[in-house]
User: Fold this.
Amino acid sequence: MTDANRNKLKIDFEPIGKRVMVAPGTCLLEAARQAGLMLNSTCGGIGKCGQCRLTVIDGEVSDPTRDERALLGASALAAGERLACHTRAYSGVKVNVPATSLVGKQRLQLNGEDDSLAPDPKVKFYSVCVPPPTLEDTRSDLERIAPVYILQKDKGGYTADPAVLRQFSPLARANDWIVDVFVRDDEIIGAAPSDVTPLGVAVDLGTTKIAAVLVDLKSGEELAVAGAANPQIAYGEDVISRLTYARQHDDGAEILGGSVRNTLDNLLKQLAEQIQAERQQIVDICVVGNTAMTHLLLGLPTSQLSVSPYVAATHLPMDIKARDLGMHAAPGAYVHVLPGIGGFVGADHVAMIMASRLDRANDIALGIDIGTNTEIVLVNPKNRTYICASCASGPAFEGAHIGDGMRASSGAIESVTISPDGIQLKTIDDAPAIGLCGSGIVDVLAELIGCNALSKVGRLGDSNKYIRKGANGLEFLLAAGSRSGSGRDVVISQKDISQIQLAKGAIRAGLETLLAVADTPAEKVAEVVVAGAFGAFLDIRNAFRIGLLPHLPNARYSQVGNAALVGAKRAVLSTLERERAVNIAKRATHLELSTYPNFNRLFALGMQFPEDE
Amino acid sequence: MTDANRNKLKIDFEPIGKRVMVAPGTCLLEAARQAGLMLNSTCGGIGKCGQCRLTVIDGEVSDPTRDERALLGASALAAGERLACHTRAYSGVKVNVPATSLVGKQRLQLNGEDDSLAPDPKVKFYSVCVPPPTLEDTRSDLERIAPVYILQKDKGGYTADPAVLRQFSPLARANDWIVDVFVRDDEIIGAAPSDVTPLGVAVDLGTTKIAAVLVDLKSGEELAVAGAANPQIAYGEDVISRLTYARQHDDGAEILGGSVRNTLDNLLKQLAEQIQAERQQIVDICVVGNTAMTHLLLGLPTSQLSVSPYVAATHLPMDIKARDLGMHAAPGAYVHVLPGIGGFVGADHVAMIMASRLDRANDIALGIDIGTNTEIVLVNPKNRTYICASCASGPAFEGAHIGDGMRASSGAIESVTISPDGIQLKTIDDAPAIGLCGSGIVDVLAELIGCNALSKVGRLGDSNKYIRKGANGLEFLLAAGSRSGSGRDVVISQKDISQIQLAKGAIRAGLETLLAVADTPAEKVAEVVVAGAFGAFLDIRNAFRIGLLPHLPNARYSQVGNAALVGAKRAVLSTLERERAVNIAKRATHLELSTYPNFNRLFALGMQFPEDE
Assistant:
């Protein structure tokens, strides 16, 4: 045993056969990480999501916690089931990791219309090599280095804040005054020994999911991606319930904002670790999200946003020091939040319009970013206006509120065909089915309509042999427990269908309202961009069959994935793209859907299912 | 008894005859404040300065603390003496307040060359009156109000930070969208109901004393002044010992910086209370101080400043949010620190040069700002250069390290004449003598030289009848206890004289070195400006007699008081004056005195006393 491993404990992960040595008291989630084994943990390891479960076969571990008792139940605990995040090793331990706990290759949509882009980042980099101070030359540290980039840029003023100078003064002395400095406008925001790669991070702060990408600001290359669940889910699944929580609790806004700031800081940590970089190399961060998300993140006031007429404190771009948001990066690094549009239509929608080039469309175009909050834009290139609206579609298409719903990861049913011969399922990674992700849900409903098993108002019939009476009324059996990855039946219930009707009704009504308000006939729409992780895998034909999308006879469809994240990435790479975002936000007007007299009728109609073609 | 006074305790202050009702447990310093009685308390009420002593005649109070036992001693405590700041009333109490504990009218030098100035503050004020939001007009709060001043100023971008928007959004709604906003460059830094007076604060952050003035930014009028001891004194009396403390203790810099930030916040509170203003009306703050003082205030790194070659992290002007310095003002208000020059010659010297118009001198001029750190400038209008140096003169001229030294307040001996008939003393407020302030110390030495009682090397002779053997060697009796305000003899000792020699030697050597380095003969100097609270009351003739100042045959002398504070005030009132400060700092060069080969010899010579004329 080497010195480094003295006193360390051996942890064996079965059936994969990975082994790692850890210090006593290490939690098994961390041990798995060190073994290169990624366990599901959308709650970030706080014992809330229940996804990191495993079975302790042998060895001494910590006692079950209250969270584990609540999530796993007595019988599972008795069988040795535990949450990896809440279980600490006190001796060598052998555990069994079920496939359901292992992270499949997660779909973080980054493809789509990501044109190549010459990096032109807001933060510039200068190599500094100056003589050290002497009693004859007592210029201050900042004045000593500033001429190097001042001359390069012909700038007048320059500054740095105390935190940056606290880093810089010892760094310069430790490196013989040969260092790289990172400069944003006229402000030095960080420094590093020479030839360190400056990094940027783009974040799409979704109501349900958070996605982040790490880029090389010199080459524009994408270096790492990471994702997490939005921890605010514990305080409400949609933006209105979260804002209500914030309004009704003295420290509500601080709790919600603090939780997401903490998650973002963890994502920065994960990204840096993936490429073994120092966090001080992260010199710029761009964040997009809907209005509620960015307001809670920045600690902007939300009382006025939570009640009619739902007014933002600001929709202008914001620049806040990362450290003021609890995020560890270069000491003076800023978080740039892109501008928003109006109401809940925020920076993520601007980023989506930018990434999907809707601002450069030549014909009338619709953009739809489907998520827990769905944003829609109708672009008219003639008068260069964008009309935007937000629909409270809820998280059903992201798998939430659906009994066997799940996110798009290994074992999720992503497409379904029902034929007289039976049911054909396609799952992610071709793993045994565990549940349904959004695209699978749409497919099931379309196929049920196709075989006349689902009525116009959304009732399951009993004509199909896979429809049976379940605990929550009628349900359609997709995969029996004997074949599934979880050992349980995978079904879609009448209750699930009602959830989907609410979601699709809201989106459809939003689309119809925008077309009506802009006096645009359906045949004039030439292009439809469907964004969002769900939208990327959506079978567009089935989206028509269930009535999620209206019939637009002349439209081309494109599915662009997480365009909001692509837009954020463009903004972190390019000052010009930030200006483009400002111009998009300026040209866009927000329509509060409820002010349209016909909206409620359109919503009711939108909940119905059409007759199949 | 009214309801408000139920359960309150009656505190009587004798012999003044003031009475106040306070809550049980209130400390007597606070009770005195509420009675409108200002007790001396340069430590800010933490039991360190011993200046708020009084005698409890009757009533139940808290037990003596360790600080009181250390400062007052057992016999004084037995006689009922207490520190007001450490004594809490538990019943009605009657106390006797000696005159020595009462604040005399303190000299905060604000006169001098304070030319009238048309206010042109960095922070502008706009009256806003806009329609409230509706479902049809959901522009964000910031976009709703911005056009009002954007149009007035033709500005492109505008912003506000989250703290400002947290104030603004509810304020606008509570005032029907009729409010005043305070704007700095393109940033809203605060808001108020309409017609509130915007206030600015200027601060001279001295090594020993802190002085602050509150101004009306619209009229330029001075509204209030306040002062306090620099609490860092507890960690060292001069800048080097404080920087050493910061270097040798992990949290040393934070302790030193935190203490002075806390004191500045208290001064803001006092200033606002004096005119019954809200602290949110304070929209701008300008601070000057030497390099060590501003570095500790802002939390800039000081390790490199504390060792040769004594290099600042920055001498450029700094703008830091007041809240980041723990100062309560308008939510987005900044603290502006004026630029410094080099080494320890900082923003206070720039402010002094500006206030005393040395940058506009037509002939060769010397400026001397005497304090714990003494800064000197030699101005040559021919080539428009300023050569500056800093002398570690110590706090002797501010009354510290002198047995009976005291600050310039009631009862301080400020001038002395010794004649064959006896000793004539002039004290501040003509109160019975308690001790000596700086100008009195200079006078005593000059008069002792005049009557041949003090040798060239600084030894007291025994030829004078008032010279006697004391506890610390020979001493000169100025006022016997029977006549003094403290009941104790007031003397100046051989040890005190040695302290003064060190101080005057440092200043004199600095002056001689500057003249030598600039190759400027004494007769070429046309003007001498003496700044600082001490300098204001200095008898210039006696300054020559003790050899503090060199003989400059053609020089006019002016005494300008606390010119650094006046300069800070000009900067808070005027953007142009801030630019002027930057220009002064750019033209000034710093001379490290120790690099001059002859410096040590000049220092030794400077400690000597000249023969009297």
